Amino acid sequence: MKKLLNTLFITQSDVYLSLDGDNIVLLKDEEKLGRLPLHNLESIISFGYTGASPALMGYCAERNISISFYTANGRFLARVIGESRGNVVLRKRQYALSEDELQSALIARNFIIGKIYNHKWMIERMTRDYPMRIDVSHFKTVSQQLSGFIKEVRECDNLQRLRGLEGLAAVCYNKLLDAMILQQKEDFYFHSRSRRPPLDNVNAMLSFAYSLLANDVAAALEGVGLDAYVGFLHRDRPGRASLALDMMEELRGVYADRFVLSLINKRVVNKDDFLTKENGAVLMKDEARKKFLTAWQAKKQEKISHPYLSENISWGLVMHAQALLLARYLRNDLDEYPPFLWK
User: Fold this and answer.
1) Total domain count for the chain?
2) Contact (CB, 8 A) for 133 and 265
3) Cβ(15)–Cβ(46) under 8 Å?
4) Last residue of a domain, one of 80, 108, 128
5) Residue 339 lies in a domain
6) Using CA atoms, how far apart are residues 301 and 343, in angstroms rounded to an integer?
7) Which residues are annotated as a binding site for Mn(2+)?
8) Which of 103, 191, 330, 336 has the smallest C-beta neighbourhood within 10 Å, fewest atoms?
9) In what order do the strands lie in the sheet with 16-20?
10) Binding site, residues?
11) Which domain does 23 fall in, by range?
12) How does strand 51-52 pair with strand 16-20?
């Protein structure tokens, strides 16, 4: 279990949640794993749950402590809340800011700053770790260009201009993505992003990783009471989780791209894991998807120090921490939304 931002995260599977006085008690096979006072908690998030007692749910509902349940893989299942005043106020604030393009831009630019910053430090990491295998001078030049884009984004308050700057920064970064592939170069290469359909092995993996990441971020947003379908950078479109797409921007490179690169460079996947259809679309075979998903879940368990919170958490909790921070900003508990800045 992990307490973060007045939220209790229960990451061990098959744990039953019960109430003892003013405390939550964690039980597994009738063994008591932990006990924590409830009076200073705002929410409880449980992964791979066995269940929760009606007494605990009633206690939390009366005191406006939400309980969110997820599968062990991070899929959102349900959220137990009491009177809806807190949730309604948060979502009304989200909807109001989303309708205001200036306010939307002020939030959106921090998502973009996070994305460009993380791309920059991916590039810097490559120059440090593989100076003999890449063109260091080229990488450093792009890193400096990304620093310039960060400064421009920081001063920008126009959504259209922000999208333009994000696009230009993405072009610079994408030019180096192929050079980050250090193994199996004949079978894995990146020339440009192709989505529907993906036209090469790398794009097939990126599409799958982005889909998984978007689902994980959407689940995190739902868990804190935000509407994953109402965004600030990505505007409303039926069936599109716009806010999830907003928030995943800062994690797209540092989480998804690095994950795909590691599978290639560590030879976890190979050319035999893919098939090409008549229309040129490249798909991952079923066994490859299973390997991918297994590695994705293992990645979530890896520990990282959260740069803003200065707490050691698993990668799988990063999007939950960011969702909590965004909710706090929307409630005016923070002056600004702090993006996830990896280094």
Assistant:
1) 2
2) no
3) yes
4) 80
5) no
6) 19
7) 166, 234, 249
8) 336
9) 31-37, 23-28, 16-20, 51-52
10) 166, 234, 249
11) 6-80
12) parallel
